Amino acid sequence: MPRLELHEAAVREELAAFEKSLRSGLGVLRRVGGVTVGATPRASIFEIDGVRLYRYGERAAPRTGMPLMIVYALVNRPEMADLQAGRSLIAALMARGFDVYLIDWGYPGGADRLLGLDDYVNRYIDACVEHLRQLLARDALSVLGICQGGTLSTCYAALHPHKVERLITTVTPIDFHTPQDMLSHFVRHIDVDSLLKSCGNVNGDFLNALFLSLKPYRLIQQKYLRFLEQLGDAEAVATFLRMEQWIFDSPALAARACGEFARDFYQANKLVKGEVSLGGRRVELSAITMPVLNIYARDDHLVPPAASQALRAVVGSKDYSEVELPGGHIGVYVGLKSPRSVPVAVAEWVAARV
To answer: Which residues are catalytic, by number?
Structure first.
């Protein structure tokens, strides 16, 4: 019986400590208040059909650095690349001398359901590149693609190689049928036509649920347990809230583009086979002859390293580099305290070629 009493006393003590921690944490939450995502000033310099091209930095800042245009994925919002001060890929690139531009796809609505990948690659990306070529009086630009944005950038570079000076891909899927690709295994069993027929544009919340289901314990239960443990740390709380705000601010995907990407890339794996056609032209990755930097994340569960490394075998460039970084699919962008990070890798690679 004494042992039972000691056990009960320990439980009561633990619960009391937990209650005290929660009360303290609630005070921290009140002090933190609302958070905003996006830390760096930016200005819209071009727009087409709701797609905007932003330039980062003060509006009157001189254009002295090397232009770098970022192409983000169609999924989620690009503010992940500028989450907050100290965790901003964009700010870190600017600090290393780049003149940074970014394509913001906006929020596709019902009227956009017929937009296909040809529109995004040959219409929108090309329009932004053309605007910058004229504005900056340059023949070609350096393009940095993030995740699916890297896949779209790769397609663009293959179709318009004379307009791309350097191609940088980060956590970018190229081979969609590698053994460790959990998302690909999942998508290959979806009846895409029935899904699109029933819902039209694909809701962002549905996509979030799909991504979270790949690792439910780590991405749901474990994440919130860790949040409770960090409630007393105002900086950690603010970062967590910003990440949550970004995750659940998910635009819908235009039905046609979503269907094409799911069928041709995830299900049929046509990109690495050289069978993708956009605008009546085949995407020949061997046409990519400009310098290429391919960055992938060692612990990426959405785009495993092998899915990105496949780029080496299919491009025509004689100047191809790969960099493996520690972290996961998002961590490589927001975990910038590591001495090995995306902006460091990009800056070092570009500096060796200027």
So the answer is: 147
Pair type for strands 141-146 and 277-278? unpaired
What is the Cα–Cα distance from 286 to 13, expressed in whole angstroms?
A: 66
The domain in which residue 61 lies consists of: 42-351
Q: Give 266-321 pLDDT, tens digit per residue.
A: 999 999 999 999 999 999 999 999 999 999 999 998 899 999 999 999 999 999 99
Q: Is residue 25 part of a domain?
A: no
When comparing pLDDT for 272 and 332, which is higher? Answer: 272
Residue 3: inside a domain: no
Rounded to whole angstroms, the Cα distance separating 171 from 308 reads 7
| Closest listed residue to residue 107, CA positions, set 253, 237, 214 | 253
Q: Is 292 left (phi over 0), alpha (psi -120 to 50) or beta?
A: beta
Three-class DSSP category at 155: helix
Two tokens, residue 65: 């650095």
pLDDT of residue 185: 82
Which CA distances in Å does 201 have to 13, 59, 191, 245, 246? 52, 35, 15, 22, 20
Strands (E), the chain: 42-48, 51-56, 66-71, 98-104, 141-146, 164-170, 277-278, 281-282, 292-297, 320-325
* Angle, in degrees to the nearest 10, between helices 222-229 and 2-32: 80
Are the beta carbons of 161 and 284 closer than 8 angstroms? Answer: no
Q: Is the pLDDT of residue 150 over 70?
A: yes
pLDDT at site 353? 87
25-80 confidence digits (pLDDT tens)? 445 445 555 667 788 999 999 999 999 999 999 876 777 789 999 999 998 899 88
In angstroms, rounded to a whole number, what is the distance separating the alpha carbons of residues 332 and 301? 13
Indicate whether 13 belongs to any domain.
Answer: no
Residues 273/305, Cβ–Cβ less than 8 Å: no
